[in-house]
Amino acid sequence: MVGNHSADDRQTPTEELVVVSNREPYSHAYADSDGGGDSDDREIEVQRPVGGLTAGLDPVMQRAEGTWVAWGDGEADREVSDAEGRVRVPPEDSSYTLQRVWLDDEEVEEYYYGYSNQVLWPLCHGDVGNITYEPRFWQRYESVNERFADAAAECARESDSGSLVWFQDYHFGLAPAMVRSQVGDETTIAQFWHIPWPSWESFEVCPQAHQLLEGLLANDLLGFHVDPHCANFLECVDACIEGATIDWDAGRVHHAGHETAVESFPMGVDAERIERLAGSEEADDFWADFRDSQGIAEDATVAIGVDRLDYTKGIPERIRAVEHLLETRPEYRGEFVYVQKASESRSRIPAYQQLQREVEETVERVNERFGTDDWTPVVGVTEMLPPESLYGLYRHADLGLVSPVRDGMNLVAKEYVAAQVDNDGALLLSKFAGTAQDLGNYAYAINPYATEEFAETIHEAVTDSPTDRKRRMRQLRQLVAAYDLDAWMDDIFGTVEDLRGEGETDSGSGERDGTGGIEGQSAEADGGNV
User: pTM for this structure?
Assistant: First the structure.
């Protein structure tokens, strides 16, 4: 599998690029010290992005030499930043500025754990029952958005050649309008919403639906992973924003003298890097050690799931499907191992605490029912793994189980495919993941709620002919390589260029190649975790 984009081909915005995200691409921490003492005596180390969006955007920022605005959450971040909270990165060859925004514990609790993840996250994933709303959450979300907007606007004003301010995700639903009020139309503002956008019937539950839509409509470009999320957003605008005019075919909203393009860009992964690391000696060594330590026989069928511990990922449903498989098909006992790599997430929130207990209890039940002295059916992995080890697990797993009950994209599916250098794995993919929009034709489709069917699909994937499995995986790998992370960013930056050209020539909405509009789909014919 070879990606389509060389370093020379990758597009960089012609304007000064200002990226705004909740998480920072580099953080600074005090190195472990066995001698005690205060922080002034301790060495500071840099913690770098290991994957995902921050790792993918970092080389773009290095080429663009712009500014990245993010929450400075590292314990030594303040010590290495200047009086304005700025530090040049990467440390070994500084090429862009990291502008840190300082948040105290109360702000993190109410803006991040509160409104972002107890209101917007469950709301957008269609899980209204998990919404916990308190007025202080909204007030803090509003004030923190203003802090980030002020920082972004200041960066934009410092550019002599114009700026592109690019917001990432649902943490900044109000910030685009705040920036627009400060910098006017001279600055291009874009945003990518990495999680689903719900239907109006769900979104109208939100007490601040109108304010959020007004904030997002200040963007020149608003991106989602897939077309249905674009359609849902336009439906919400139509129902909620009086006076807005919608061009449904082009995906454009005209409101308050401003036009917002709403388009789909299914996110990809760094397929070339994943393939290289999956085929490395370090990956093979890790797999050999892991298999020995867990007592996994060489001829055992191994399935893997990699997730944050989040109620949207369908982890209990997946383990119950494994349990049903072992219950109804005894031939798999002693011959099938499911590896669940799970990382703790948002553990301050009661719904996540409950999920963690449910997962632990379900794993314990399955292992007690079916496990023997020589075989553990469900193996849990909680420690952070280096990329080579993680991709080694992907490569050597016979099955990749990606079964979210709702997901904007889910990049684990693409990572698993990219790591299948031997083309012999099988991807089982939930119909409710955004990734199913472009990978669904060649993955084994599952409904995570249909336990019996899920278990039967596992059996189907295991017993399919090697020829059919390789055919499916080759097709999947071609799709993942064709629209990788670089192609995703090129598509977005190219669209921004098109929109700016339209504004300069007053040529109307027009059309473009690639991904876009409610009628379009990705160039692959894509996309992504978060």
Answer: 0.91
